[in-house]
Amino acid sequence: MTTAIATTHPSQSWLLLVLRLRTFVALILVLAYFSVMAPNFLTAANAVIVSKHVALNAFLAIGMTFVIITGGIDLSVGSIVGLCAMVAGWLVLNGVDTGLGWTVWFNTWEIVGITLLVGIAVGFINGLLITRLNVAPFIATLGTLYIARGAALLSSDGRTFPNLGGTEEFGTASFPFIGSGSVLGLPVMIWLLVGVALGAHYVSRRTPLGRHIYAVGGNERGAALSGVKVDRVKLFVYMFSGFCAGLVGIIIASQLQAAHPATGETFELNAIAAAVLGGTSMSGGRGRIFGTIIGAFVIGILGDGLIMMGVSSFWQTVIKGVVIVLAVVIDQAQSRLQARVALAQEAAASR
Amino acid sequence: MTAEAGGHPIGLSIRGGVKVYPGTRALKGVDFDLRMGAVNVLVGENGAGKSTLMKVIAGVESLTEGRIEMAGREVHFRSKADAVKAGIGIVFQELNLFPNLTVAENIFIGHEPVRGGVDIDQTAQARATAALMARLEQDIAPETPLDHLRVGQQQIVEIAKALSQDARILILDEPTSALSAAEVEVLFRVIAELKSQGVGIVYISHRLEELIRVGDYITVLRDGEITGSRPMAGVDIPWIVRAMIGGKTKEFPRTQAAAFGDEVFRAEDVTLPRAGGGYAVDHVSLSVRKGEIVGLYGLMGAGRTEFLECVMAQHPGSGGRMVVDGTPLTERDVAGRIARGIALIPEDRKRDGLVQIMAIRENLTLSSLGLFTRAMHLDLKAEAAKAMEFVKRLTIKIASPENPVSSLSGGNQQKVVIGKALMTSPKILLMDEPSRGIDIGAKAEVFRTMRELAAQGLGILFVTSDLDEVMALSDRILVMANGRISGEYPSGTDAATVIAAATPHIRKDQAA
Asked: Does residue B156 register a pLDDT over 80?
């Protein structure tokens, strides 16, 4: 390994910096482009609308990022969104019939808690299938994708739960606030996103758990032999992904004041796209929460901007695909360059 | 060059073979004759150049200098396919088979008999496979899935694969390392059969008795040079050992006088059942004292690595008792055992020791993150400081601790693995082939580090298949064969005794 060039060219390190920040660069390019091309794009009102669109995908993408860093995949998040929306809708509308002639009604906080627990529970099942029964993550979560979707459809016989406005009587009048309320001029869901994102970033960078997530994805055997409890780490990431999906389910039900069992179909693909666009490696071990969020913004802004420019939605789909593929190609180039620079540095140091 | 000895014509010869890898000369002017219709035995220590020589013959590597001749003409093998065309087949130590395919499919992989260029002629393939199996006296149906076969039978399939390409020269690299005694007998019959058909066989093994029994000619390699080459008649084990390790041993002198403390680790009756009966680790009991370096010598498949894995809680099915510092070891997971003061430096750095894409710092601290954590919060400054402390202490040469560990040389990577283990403040250090894949300078440094650690009171149990290493470094030598401890010797024991104890299948007196 002494064939690498001994010194790093300035142009090389500059290129590396640009490549490292590529998602950010892409975001700025997309923003600039639409600011010029679509007159109403760069307004505060539009920024809030776009953020709300992006936020839903960003929640899922954060959960997905952890899963992908461990080397797994979670296809079930879209279905968990649907299931959790239905659970929340059911609790607001019907309460829980105890079968003893009376019904238990929950207030908004309790509904949020129960719904999130449902999301976490589905993630827990994913984790158990993957760690205890050795089912491949793709298959395990494909299974729960169908099961959760089926359960959502069964809960209402395929109908929509309408009018989830809530009542003062049961303490659910605040339910719509989650999806459509604002605090200090920003939508509640944006505050929630900021909270979840900061939390996830903190976990990934400043806790042993986060380090273990990266280690499991980088080399599962090596991590296990270093004393990392691989199964627990995997359980956590799938449960956290389920938590994020549950949150999205609640937000959507609250925003629309209605819950439809088909909510969240194909959301998992958008979440994967955002994570990959943000630099998460599908082979595991690499990825950043902020990268993912920027990735989600690029996808969201691309979609909304193209709509405002009046581009056909069919073309939008094509463009989205091109951007994702391009992102991965650039990602490969960056990791090769980065490895070369590091090799050159180390070769120089060991001389 | 056409000299015939004992009626065995020379099928292939190498003259002045030199192979240079970056940093090392693996072959230093080797002359080698391969005789047809005979078993040409090749023996030498790990790293002596046996595998390189065979790779050159099989076209996997090409010579830096020198030439290969077949039937008096110089030949050039640019790839394995060239060598196959010239009638050379090789069976590697690690089997290159597809467990999900059938025996016939495995044998004809890459050269399937086809009709019209696409359609595999299943009947012809099955017929040819059946014929090969008959030639090798095996009762294996062509459509048997490979993973239904025992390892020994799989080895036969590898040989059949080589023969199916009309191999006139067959190289067998440690063919018996994974075989049972009965399977070895079958293999030897097959070899005798092939010999009588005029096939020239190169046979590499560490099992000296086996070599003497099966070989017709012997060639001994040491440090890339041939130190002995003659017909097998009259060769005995002491002759081979002398040629293998020479007069002098490599120097890793002890700097401090040995002062051993109390027993720090004891294993009693550790067992690991082997799939298909028997034990991979067969009631192994041993103990290590503070400040003592115990060398665990043995051949591949002797159960040394498996024993270390049992200690590190890698095999849920293992039995036996272990004691650390006088207290029984009851923890059932790796984290618990690390916490009790056991640290393992695995044999395969890439696969088990490191997370290649993570930074050097992150690898160093991976087992000891608890040191820098207060209520979930990781103190990155303290972590970086600790990492740098170990980088200095072990003199790991790095440009930045934030570079991925994959950018380091083998020796420095090994030091990172050692650093990771040491950061957990172990009482007993288990090292599996600590010098594998690192250059001679780094080796010496690793050994010096081991000495220092022992002097500081650490108990070290290290596994090696390098005789020099075990002789020079150990305060006490344990030998394993067939999953059992087959001998225990003080440092300074005669090398031949140790080798004899390591040779399985033959009952040795269970020494001292």
From this structure: yes
Which has the minimum average pLDDT: A1-15, A207-221, A232-246, B206-220?
A1-15
- Name the token pair of A188: 């509640």
Q: Do A226 and B366 touch (CB under 8 A)?
A: yes
Q: Is the pLDDT of residue A87 over 60?
A: yes
A338 neighbors A16 (Cβ within 8 angstroms): yes
Q: Between residues A171 and A133, which one has the greater pLDDT?
A: A133
* Interface touch B398/A348, C-beta < 8 Å: no
Tell if the CB–CB gap between A229 and B369 is shorter than 8 Å: no
Domains of chain B: 10-245 (3.40.50.300), 259-341+427-512 (3.40.50.300), 352-425 (no CATH)
Chain B residues with CB-CB distance to A218 below 8 A = 355-358
Within 205-224 of A, beta carbons closer than 8 Å to B belong to 205-212, 214-215, 218-219, 221-224
Radius of gyration of chain B (CA): 25
For A225, which of B352, B362, B376 is closest by C-beta distance?
Answer: B352
Write the CB contacts of B64 (distance below 8 Å, at least 6 apart in sequence).
Answer: B18, B19, B20
- State how far the Cα of A14 lies from the Cα of B387, in Å rounded to an integer: 28
**Mean pLDDT of the region B177-195:** 81
- Average pLDDT rounded to a whole number, residues A194-221: 94
Other Cβ atoms closer than 10 A to A252: 25
Which neighbouring-strand residues pair with B481?
A: B484
User: CB pairs under 8 A, 24+ apart, for B77-82?
Assistant: none
Q: Is A7 in the B-facing interface, judged by CB distances under 8 Å?
A: no
The residue of A214, A221, A346, A351 whose CB has the most chain B CBs within 10 angstroms, and thus the best one to mutate to test that interface, is A346
- Cβ neighbours of residue A157 closer than 8 Å, sequence gap 6 or more: none
Here the tokens at position A192 are 């929630």
Bin B403: left if φ > 0, else alpha if -120 < ψ < 50, else beta: beta
Strand partners, B225: B222
A286·B378 Cβ contact <8 A: no
- ipTM of the complex as predicted: 0.83
- Contact call for A342 and B353, based on CB within 8 A: no
> Is A208's CB within 8 Å of B314's CB?
no
Residue with tokens 């806790």: A207
Pull the structure tokens for residue A314.
Answer: 């069919």
Q: Is B353 within 8 Å of chain A by CB?
A: yes
Q: Which residues of A48-73 are buried (b: 16+ CB within 10 A; e: fewer)?
A: eebbbbbbbbbbbbbbbbbbbbbbbb
Q: Nearest 10 degrees: CA dihedral of B400, B401, B404, B409? A: 70
Coil/strand/helix, residue B24: strand
Which is nearest to B125 in space by CA: B139, B143, B138?
B143
Please report, to the nearest 10 degrees, the dihedral formed by the alpha carbons of residues B222, B450, A229, B281 taken in order.
60
Residue type, B136: L
Q: How far apart are CA A89 and CA A269, in angstroms?
A: 25
In chain B, % of residues over pLDDT 70: 92
Local structure of A10: helix, strand or coil: helix
pLDDT at B274: 82
Would you call B220 helix, strand, or coil by DSSP? Answer: strand
Strand pairing of B293-298 and B476-481? Answer: parallel
Q: Which residues pair with B27 in a beta bridge?
A: B19
Q: Where are the domains of chain A?
A: 51-302
The closest alpha carbon to A251, from A28, A89, A43, A42, belongs to A89
The CATH number, out of the four listed (1.10.3470, 1.25.40, 3.30.870, 2.160.20), of the domain defined by the range A51-302: 1.10.3470
pLDDT (tens digit, 9 = 90+) per residue, A242-285? Answer: 999 999 999 999 999 999 999 999 999 999 999 999 889 888 99
Tokens of B428: 């007993």
pTM value is: 0.79
